[in-house]
UniProtKB/TrEMBL annotation:
One of its GO terms (molecular function) is zinc ion binding. Keywords: Metal-binding, Zinc, Zinc-finger. Residues 19-84 form the PHD-type domain. It comes from the Eukaryota. This is PHD-type domain-containing protein. It comes from Scylla paramamosain. It holds the Pfam family PHD. Gene3D superfamilies: Zinc/RING finger domain, C3HC4 (zinc finger).
Length: 154
């Protein structure tokens, strides 16, 4: 895991009441650590390595402001909060995700149909081309054989 490319705890609160310990390993954070805040009920901080958060996901979470401007909600919850049955869900966000997945599914179906149409057209063109090539080859060899037979008669 690479060092925190976003500076010293880009989203970490600066008030003195905040404990700067990883909730998993219980070690203090350093300015080089990649850290992430649980958006679940506990609101605890974790080293991204302790949270088993891949670098690419860590970057997305740390770029929250930029992602929100694109209309994306970037949240991460620790295992304890994810396993908690009473975790509050965002029905608006879930509805949005279901809607987007439905649209993506329609687009995917459309693209698969188009690809199949293109493949079928390509196959029929190949068959037609092979037929034309075969006819032309037959005519060529037939004419050639006839021409050579005529030449031998001379």
């Amino acid at each position: 895991m690479m060092a925190n490319p976003y500076g010293i705890f880009p989203t970490m609160p600066t008030n003195s009441s905040t404990t700067l310990l990883c909730a998993q390993c219980k070690k203090f954070f350093t300015y080089m650590d990649s850290v992430v805040l649980c958006d679940g009920a506990c609101k605890r901080w974790y080293h991204s390595k302790c949270a088993k958060l891949p670098e690419n996901k860590y970057r997305v979470i740390q770029d929250r402001d930029e992602n929100r401007s694109l209309g994306l909600k970037c949240m991460w919850a620790c295992k304890d909060c994810r396993d908690r049955p009473d975790t509050g869900r965002d029905p608006e966000f879930e509805s949005y995700v279901r809607e987007r997945l439905g649209k993506l599914s329609q687009v995917l179906e459309y693209l698969v149909t188009k690809i199949q149409d293109i493949e079928n057209r390509q196959k029929s063109q190949e068959v037609e081309m092979n037929k034309e090539t075969g006819d032309a080859l037959y005519n060529f060899t037939g004419n050639f054989a006839g021409a050579s037979a005529g030449a031998q008669d001379m």
